[in-house]
Amino acid sequence: MTDRPKIKGNPLLVTVYLLVLCYIVGEFVIPKYPLLYPIHLIGILGLIISLFFFFSGFNIFTSYEENPAPTSPSRLPELWKIKDTSHFQKLKTCLNVKKQMKGK
Fold first, then answer.
1. What predicted TM-score, i.e. pTM, was given to this entire model?
2. Is residue 102 part of a domain?
3. Does residue 31 lie within any of the structural domains?
4. Do residues 13 and 61 both lie within one domain?
5. Which SS3 state, helix, strand or coil, does residue 7 take?
6. How far apart, in Å, are the Cα atoms of 65 and each of 52, 58, 72?
7. Please, which pLDDT band fits residue 68 given cuts at 50, 70 and 90?
8. I want to staple 84 with a disulfide (CB 3.0 to 4.6 A). Which of 13, 27, 89, 99 is the partner?
9. Do residues 96 and 88 touch, judged by C-beta distance below 8 A?
10. Does one domain contain both 54 and 101?
């Protein structure tokens, strides 16, 4: 007596038949383009809506006569000049710059 699995049918044929069935369903029953079209449409509408929110927010910002350019000088170029690679030293310098800016 042999110890073989008691499987009815050939697993290779079952797998091939399922692959062919999935291909037929995916290609002909559920067409590709009508499913992708709503997804692309939602993406384009989201882009248009986000641009609308950006420009309406900018209009509100300028309606209060705010200047979008920063009025205080930036100390960032000084931070880029730090040659020491120690993270503690860089953090210490950043905190010193913040304290100096608050003092002005």
1. 0.37
2. yes
3. yes
4. yes
5. coil
6. 20, 11, 17
7. low
8. 89
9. no
10. no
* AA identity, residue 14: V
The secondary structure of 41-104, three-state, reads HHHHHHHHHHHHHHHHHHHHHHHCCCCCCCCCCCCHHHHHCCCCCCHHHHHHHHHHHHHHHHHC
- If one compares 64 and 69, the residue with the highest pLDDT of the two is 64
> Which tokens sit at 26?
């995916």
Tokens of residue 100, six digits: 């100096």
Residue type at position 41: L
Q: Which of 40, 99, 52 is nearest to 75 (CA)?
A: 99
Length of the chain, in residues: 104
- Cα 70 to Cα 79: distance, rounded to the nearest angstrom: 18
The label of the residue with tokens 């950043």 reads 94
Nearest-angstrom CA–CA distance, 100 and 102? 5
User: Which residues, other chains included, contact 84 with Cβ-Cβ below 8 Å and sequence gap of 6+?
Assistant: 90
